[in-house]
Write a structure and sequence with these properties.
393 residues; alpha/beta; TIM Barrel; 2 domains; 8-stranded parallel sheet; globular; tRNA-guanosine(34) queuine transglycosylase activity; glycosyltransferase; Queuine tRNA-ribosyltransferase; tRNA processing
Length: 393
């Protein structure tokens, strides 16, 4: 059942982990949730109804890319992003700040906002907190993110502190620009690099703004997994318990499992779609690279126990052939498999938390990955570094 308002309820906890629901006019998001990335108004190599059928309740769109092409005003004239991309369910849009950091050849940040050159045609654009919220409104986004300054790690404490304070001031401006929009939400973004005191200050100041949700940004940008997890543990006690928590741009299945154990509710990452287009698959047995010659005569499917047709029907030999031949179908099938696995993992986490058996479930999942590596079915899956994954999903 949908609602006219934006609400979040936690139905069960298991340790720090929670399962619950975000309700809004366009639908219900079951948490913990993985949001497939639809950077340019498309989850690459997937039909929208496929994405929904796999269990995705929400997808992510990108302010930076959509403002450059086809343009936010054009999307608005065409009926908004939901109608434009044939996705009538919730959409979260990021603010564009991360892409400005990672893609723009020339950018200048000051108190007003960011002036940058388009990576497409070199044209100059100015993105202020107010303009970011305006663009997200024109797109018709259900969950809108504040504009923030994201720094690459490692960086000095001084750089992290300056960016964190600027992000806080921008959060206040975004809050004012967003105003009251029934049924929609604006989330603030905790920054502070890898410095615990800065992360705590950022989380506390943002909590005082009384926003509808809170994200942890600036992680999976080059730091080791243990640093990322320490930052989550540092921030979690200072994030409002009654609001959803979103870890931006993360990550590998292992990153997600560990973050869920620490109380995170929402995730997005281009990894399953990007990897699928480059011959990599995620399964219960870990990660496999279908480009490898050892799959050339392997008649087994990727995972006979999966409900996904891409996973349980096509032989690894055929998928290997498609990948080596650079066939579009190969990209489509591997992306389908990967998103199916991610959504199966999220469903498993939700069920395990509801039943109070999360640690047992996590042990089973990790044993499956380890067994795959021992049996030579898979390669080890490392922590994500999204600095190389910022262009498009």
């Amino acid at each position: 059942m949908t609602t006219d308002t934006f609400t979040f309820t936690v139905s069960k906890t298991d340790g720090a982990a929670r399962t619950g629901e975000i309700r809004m006019p366009r639908g219900v998001i079951r948490t913990p949730a993985f949001m497939p990335v639809g950077t340019a108004a498309t989850v690459k190599a997937m039909y929208p109804d496929q994405v929904k059928a796999l269990g995705a309740d929400v997808v992510l769109g990108n302010t930076y890319h959509l403002m450059l092409r086809p343009g936010a005003e054009r999307v608005a004239r065409l009926g908004g992003l939901h109608q434009f991309m044939n996705w009538p369910y919730p959409i979260l849009t990021d603010s564009g700040g991360f892409q400005v950091m990672s893609l723009s050849a020339l950018r200048k940040i000051d108190e007003t906002g960011v002036t940058f050159q388009s990576h497409i045609d070199g044209s100059t654009h100015v993105l202020t907190p107010e303009r970011s919220i305006e663009i997200q409104g024109l797109l018709g986004s259900d969950i809108q993110m504040q504009l923030d300054e994201c720094v690459k790690l490692p960086c000095s404490d001084e750089i992290a502190e300056k960016a964190m304070h600027l992000s806080l001031r921008w959060a206040e401006r975004c809050r004012v620009a967003f105003g009251e929009q029934p049924g929609k939400a604006m989330f603030g973004i905790v920054q502070g690099g890898a410095v615990e005191r800065l992360r705590i200050e950022s989380a506390r100041e943002l909590a005082d703004l009384g926003l509808k949700g809170y994200a942890i940004g600036g992680l999976a940008v080059g730091e080791p997994q243990d640093v990322m997890l320490r930052m989550i543990e540092t921030v979690e006690p200072h994030m409002p318990k009654e609001k959803p928590r979103y870890l931006m741009g993360v990550g590998t299945p292992d990153d997600i499992v560990e973050a869920v154990r620490r109380g995170v509710d929402m995730f997005d990452c281009v990894m399953p779609t990007r990897a699928g287009r480059h011959g990599q698959v995620f399964t219960r047995h870990g990660r496999m690279n279908l480009r490898n010659a050892r799959f050339a005569e392997d008649t087994r499917p990727l995972d006979p126990e999966s409900k996904c047709t891409a996973s349980n029907t096509y032989s690894r030999a055929y998928l290997h052939h498609l990948v080596r031949s650079n066939e579009i179908l190969g990209m489509m099938l591997l992306t389908w498999n990967n998103l199916a696995y991610y959504q199966e993992l999220m469903a498993g986490l939700r069920k395990a938390i509801a039943e109070g058996r999360l640690e047992t479930y996590v042990g089973e999942v990790k044993e499956g990955w380890a067994k795959g590596e021992r049996d030579g079915k898979a390669e080890i899956g490392h922590h994500a570094d999204n600095t190389s994954m910022t262009a498009e999903g």
